[in-house]
Amino acid sequence: MNFLAEDLSFPRSDFPAVSVNCAMLSANACYQVFQRSIDDYHIYDNVDAPIKNPYPANSFEALLYHKNWIDTVQWHLEDIIRKPDIDPKEGIALKRRIDKSNQDRTDMVEKVDDQFLGKFGNVVPKPGARMNSETPAWLLDRMSILLLKIYHMKEQTERSDVSADHISKTTAKLAVLLEQREDMRQAYDELIEDIGNGNRKFKVYRQMKMYNDASLNPMLYEQNKTNSSAK
Predict the structure, then answer these.
(1) Which residue from 34, 18, 24, 65 is spatially nearest to 188, judged by alpha carbons?
(2) CA–CA dist 91, 150 (Å, integer)
(3) pLDDT tens, 175-215?
(4) 3-state SS of 136-158?
(5) Which residue among 10, 19, 174, 216 has the highest number of C-beta atoms inside a 10 angstrom radius?
(6) Predicted confidence (pLDDT) at residue 21 exceeds the cutoff of 80
């Protein structure tokens, strides 16, 4: 039985097949793509700025860049929606945009996992291979968001309008985040190596989000019943 077998009742994504080259199986290479996306976003620092993916279409790098761009935009949407004086209608619109962004983020992670399924699909696990509860793509998701934390925490350490205590606290937090970056770098590289040599295995379980599904969210399907009977 293939150790990457997934629940086949859930369809694979329709993202075009990409070539996952060996370089992109290193944490350093993935971090570089995420950082480029973050830096590119902050040229304009606008949640409505269009994405201009610099990598070849259907490349693994392009997929990771797009994934981080979604994360980066959502990071700033989360900031905006917390404005104390936000107009309620604007707040509702932002909440729905964030919900869609969360769905897009999850879809993108699954597309990344599809590439790992293809890359390692022929690997036969060794007897006693350990199951990894987190897939490579969900680890990359955490790494993507971690770089956003580092970027914005570093900004806090460079502010000139805050107290020395604020600078001290954010500097200490930044040090922890940088340590975590190195730990995740090691964890990702070791996971990829272990999967490749059959020492670890994983499964991809497709999302089962209910609140966005009109057939599963009672607020939505009851409203649909009401609308149908009113016709």
Answers:
(1) 24
(2) 27
(3) 999 999 999 999 999 999 999 999 999 999 887 778 777 88
(4) HHHHHHHHHHHHHHHHHHHHHHC
(5) 174
(6) no
Reference 75, options 174, 144, 16; nearest CA is 144
64-82 burial, b at 16+ Cβ within 10 Å, e below that, comes to bbbbbbbbbbbbbbeeebe
Tokens 């070539």 found at? 19
Both tokens of 15, joined, read: 């993202």
Q: Residue range 44-52: average pLDDT?
A: 98
DSSP bridge partners of 200: 130
The dihedrals phi and psi of 225, each to the nearest 5 degrees, come to -65, -45
Tokens 């502010």 sit on residue: 159
| 24 token code pair | 């992109």
| pTM score of the predicted model | 0.86
* Domain spans in the chain, listed from the N-terminal domain onward: 22-230
